[in-house]
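Acyl-CoA--sterol O-acyltransferase 1: structure, please.
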Amino acid sequence: MAEASWNLINPFSLLLASLGYCYFLLTRIPLGILRFMFLLPIFYLFSILPWYFPSALLRGILSFFITWIASSKLLLFCFNQGPLVHCQNFPDFIAISILPMKIKEQPTSSRSAMGRYEPVQLFNKPYLATSLQDFWGRRWNRYASNILRETVHKPTRNMLTSVVGVGPARVLALICTLVVSGVLHEMLFYYITCGKKPTWEVTWFFALQGLSMAFEAALKKWVRTKGWTVHSLGSVILTCGFVVVTFYWLLVLPVWRDGRNSCDC
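Here you go.
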């Protein structure tokens, strides 16, 4: 019983110790690459944290909120960006790092946590999306979308604009962001499937979404030049139909085929 309790407490202790290191020590390191270098051990610890749990569900949840999202927030923090910059104490830092929460711009006088924090909106009626850009950018998992926008899309677009121009940079940044999202989702399924070698079907799913979004934008521009219009209901059906079919083909089937609830041999 004592060993089982230790196995449960240990990963949470490791998580709190890692966040304590970031809050109390990392803040004393100059911003930029040097702070990033001091953060590398935390990235490693966050990558092994899900393996402490035998359940595929817990591994999936931990790998999303800790290995991916918390690591991304800490990466932004290295360059004085992201939500962690606004944390004024260690409890704030813990809550904002690992939970889909943000500090209210005007906190209420309540002493409870909900008086200081508010949840980040995860979904915004994705079934009403009229385009792939609307679906992925504004309606589906806005929590992850916002993180990817700050960590991948904006830096890539800014870097490429002076090289290829505004339009191509925007398209390339979009596709790059979706590919990175695919790789990160591949990582999540790596934990869920007990370290099974990835088939890269999940990455192809997101790469396909990025390419389709670029094609969709070009098609819309061409349709406007013709003076044509597409009924909003037709747009919703086409958008949701495309996402559902490709989601089932490249995301659901691989997990269904390879997922295991326990990593015990």
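Notes: The first helix runs from residue 2 to 24.
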